[in-house]
Amino acid sequence: MRRFALALALAMTAPSALLAQETGTTPSPTSLAGDIVAATGDQLGSVSVTELANGVVHLIIQATDIPPGPHGMRLHEVGTCEGDFSSAEGPITGSGADDLGAENLHAGDLPNAYVEDDGVLSMEAFALPDLTMAMLTDDDGAALIIHADRRDFGLTSPDDAGARLACAVLDAIPAAEEN
Ligand SMILES: [Cu+2]
């Protein structure tokens, strides 16, 4: 009877907690989340990032009060959103500036988002296959940037996404929230 009670207690312990206990490390997160903020500090929305079973990174991005029109969307190197958001530094480039064989396409690039007159941005996207969860969870983290202008990916014009309108620091979701 006593042995049964112990087995039950073990079974009820979260597997992730057991794993952390055994290895002495925290398992790398498979989900990240962040609040999208304007340069004024106003909160505009949220982003969630999930690594699928095959390693592909999937994003859900929702925000309000975004100027109507197309907006470049990109994952940047540093998880800091201060001032004009230059604190997030450059886009995640993966293996190099010309990774993926295209001068204007980097691992952190996402498709443009299109916002109607209501100012609502709502998109779901897969990241490029070059992007890994490890790039987003390195020591200095990562940030999502919503740019002022549409990106052209070098197809027909110089590729300039314009100013950084909004920014979200991508943080690991605490285990308690994830359940
Ligand atoms: Cu960018």
SSE inventory with pairings:
Blueprint: H1 2-12, H2 15-23, E1 31-38, E2 43-51, E3 57-63, E4 69-76, E5 109-115, E6 121-126, H3 133-136, E7 143-147, E8 164-169, E9 171-172, H4 175-178
Antiparallel strand pairs: 1-2, 1-8, 1-9, 2-3, 3-6, 4-5, 4-7, 7-8
Bound molecules: copper (II) ion (CU).
Keyphrases for this structure?
179 residues, SOD-like_Cu/Zn_dom_sf, globular, single chain, alpha+beta, Immunoglobulin-like, Superoxide dismutase, binds copper (II) ion, 4 helices, signal, SOD_Cu_Zn_dom
Describe, in plain words, how this protein is organized in 3D:
The chain is an alpha+beta fold. It has one domain (31-178): Immunoglobulin-like (Sandwich). The protein has four helices and nine strands. Strands 1, 2, 3, 4, 5, 6, 7, 8 and 9 form a nine-stranded antiparallel β-sheet that branches. The two termini are 30 Å apart. 32% of the residues are buried. Copper (II) ion binds at residues 74, 76, 91, 145, 147, 161. It comes from Jannaschia pagri. It holds the Pfam family Sod_Cu. InterPro entries: SOD-like_Cu/Zn_dom_sf, SOD_Cu_Zn_dom. Residues 1-20 form the signal peptide.
